Amino acid sequence: MDTAPEHAHSGPPGGRDYTDVQHSAEFSELRSSYRSFVFPLTVAFIVWYLLYVLLSNYAGGFMGTKVVGNVNVAFVFGLAQFLTTFLIAWWYSRFAAAKLDPKAEALKTRLEAENLQRATDAGGTARPESGTIGHQADPRDQDKGELAGQEDDA
Amino acid sequence: MSATHAIAAPAVQLAAEGASAHRPLIITLFSVFVAITLAVTVWAGRRTKDAADFYAGGRQFSGFQNGLAISGDYMSAASFLGIAGAIALSGYDGFLYSIGFLVAWLVALLLVAEPLRNSGRYTMGDVLAYRMRQRPVRTAAGVSTIIVSIFYLLAQMVGAGALVALLLGITGETGKNLIVVFVGVVMILYVTIGGMKGTTWVQMIKACLLIGGTVIITFLVFHKFNYNLSSLLGAAAENSGKGAAFLEPGLKYGATTTSKIDFISLGIALVLGTAGLPHILIRFYTVPTAKAARKSVNWAIGIIGVFYLMTIALGFGAAALLSPKTITDSNAAGNTAAPLLAQEIGGGADSTGGAVLLAMISAVAFATILAVVAGLTLASSSSFAHDLYANVIRKGNATEKEEVKAARVSAVIIGAVAIGLGIFAGKLNVAGLVALAFAVAASANLPTLLYSLFWKRFTTTGALWSIYGGLISSVLLVFFSPVVTGKESSMFPDVDFAWFPLENPGLISIPLGFLLGWVGSLFSKDEGAGGAKYAELEVRSMTGVGAH
């Protein structure tokens, strides 16, 4: 928190270049499994929602058809939107926990170890600044890790 | 103006008669809420030491706690009172709000919450400006945050003023203005003393009260109809005087081609607005990790979803048990349908049960407004202090103490602005303002947020075009719409310069925001650092390395 403000928003400890990480096979895999799950799903639920909006507007007769008692198609459609929202949230979370989190965490652990190494190695002029940041960032990240672990158990 | 008075006068009288006997009870319950929440705020304030505490509640809330707080922030007076009223008066068309407000959370869950938590620090501007030239983009993000929040804030304050006046039976401008000032002052205390920690606890308490109150009413309504949804709907359709049409889409929006297009516009604004609302986005910073942010959205979807399902019972219950005239006499827009239903289902106006339930639901409504207003004020003062003051005005040379002080001062100023607007804008159309806040958020904030996170070629120029283009177009289109002038229900019914036919600008301004971001990026040079900066943002947002 006490880092120089101009660095505060402009990046990670040590100000390293992440282009190599971005191009690494490990990261590409993480990114493509995230995007290939999330993008089609987003398009799908927006289309499904818009279908519902358009049917409400332009297919009044169909939407007014009674299904059970006074419950009509429009109502069932509306409740189905609730159901799909719950299901998509559950499905994504399951997917993320199984496929994304392990990869992201492995990468994070590796990168943080690298960053720490850089901070320790960096001598001379860069020393005081990166040293401070390294020491500060470290125990906190450990905290976070523990917390995340606790949550998993819960 | 005279027309407004003609509607308002008997309504105030009627509610005053009904509510006067229960006034002590309502005031007691509400005072208890204020006392408890202020105590919690002071307690949280003692534990607020640095900027991360003030802006992000120390980042130590659990996923469940934050999910509850998000629900508290999201279920505003517009959701609770507005949707119940809309269903009670327009039947099925009112229910569409519930659906849009809920589905919108998937955008936040799938695309925004986790990357935002991983790469930002305190505000939405942190992520928008990450890869860009800091000063111009932070300025734009700050301006947009404050404008969206003030529109949302204004709607809540106007709602608070009108509702409080009706429920407490305080008539006349002076009494109502006093209430608006009171709400404003309590909210300023929450934010300046308690910061994000205090505000988060207030949201959690409020969410529990709102859910608890709604569960009781829902249970009582269903009990009355032998737990049979079909007979509840049948009774609502019959009692509304509209028959089967009451249960079908189109009662409110199906009249003309324009109203149908307006409905599509509203639908798009609702589904895309949530993930661009600054007061919702900053909530993701209150948890320690992206995983916890995901968990909090899941809890929020569960809680908010169940709540919106219960609006079926509130709205159709009110339609089934109250005459349409009772509802509109009390409030022309149906905003008091939920409290009136509580009174009816408790045994009627003269019974103790009715009095207790009315008092309870009214106190819950107050708590709702107060908490949401506090969340909005916190979002805009955070953005002012962190984006505009620390990074633009002081160019990053402000100390943490100065920054937090600026946030507290701006919370007082924004609170004062809200009080002023609430007093002077007493007759404005609340629903129009809430929908505008969603449309502005979806037009100005969402495109830049998504492009920043997912599109490598995005540039500073693209971000500025998108934010300002979306902001200006949505605000201007509303200004020239029937919301402001030209219709009896307009803010200024006596003037007419409404050349834009739709009440919600989303259909035009949201695609425009996306288009401008794209065109602006194509027409500008990719900054030299663009590639490296994007690499950094992408790796951070996906893995959480270096997250604050």
From TrEMBL, chain A:
It holds the Pfam family DUF485. PANTHER family: INTEGRAL MEMBRANE PROTEIN-RELATED (PTHR38441), MEMBRANE PROTEIN (PTHR38441:SF1). This is DUF485 domain-containing protein. Residues 117-154 are annotated as: Disordered. The chain crosses the membrane at residues 37-55, 67-92. The keyword Transmembrane helix applies. The lineage of its organism: Bacteria, Bacillati, Actinomycetota, Actinomycetes, Kitasatosporales. The keyword Transmembrane helix applies. It comes from the Bacteria. Keywords: Membrane, Transmembrane, Transmembrane helix. It comes from Streptomyces diacarni. Residues 137-146 have a biased composition (Basic and acidic residues).
